[in-house]
Amino acid sequence: TLFRSWVGGGTHEEDLALIKEPMFRVLEKHKNVTFKILHGIPDFFKNHKKIKLYKAFKPVTKYPQWVVRQGFDIGVAPLVDNNFNRGKSNLRWLEYSAMKVPTVASPLPHFTQSIRHGETGFIANTPEQWEHYLTLLINDAEKRKQIGQNAYDEVKNNWSLKSLGEKYETAIKELSNAEPNTVGHSEFN
Question: How does 1-12 read in b/e, with b if 16+ C-beta sit within 10 Å?
């Protein structure tokens, strides 16, 4: 059985509505697929035999291990394009990627700037695209594994504390070694 996942609070009904119809079609077509939702579930996904809600409070020190134990195969990150969601980060993709789980995400800037479409995840803009990319990953175990590994490598090499710390250290050194009046210099100074 394959498990597709969504992790998030109960305030994402509008976001999850983006994948409602594609998810129902995919679940109908693929007998071996279950959709796991951690924490919040909208009414339209309740009482479906192939949609499972897992709700448990975990302290921050235990939460990552609990999520890993859920055994996700594919992660989804649907977000409606609005100002609030445009202010969010790429955290969902980072979390799935750290688990080597390929992600299908909405085309908001924080995802499109992080995900290399077809290499470290997929960007889906329409219900048809959601269904297509989910089906592709369901049907191709090697593709799931490769995209999950690519995403993991991307996060490890470019988004980890170590790699970001090195980038900040370089930037600080460059700033501290800069000549006076060159940092932040503009025609208005």
Answer: ebbbbbbbeeeb
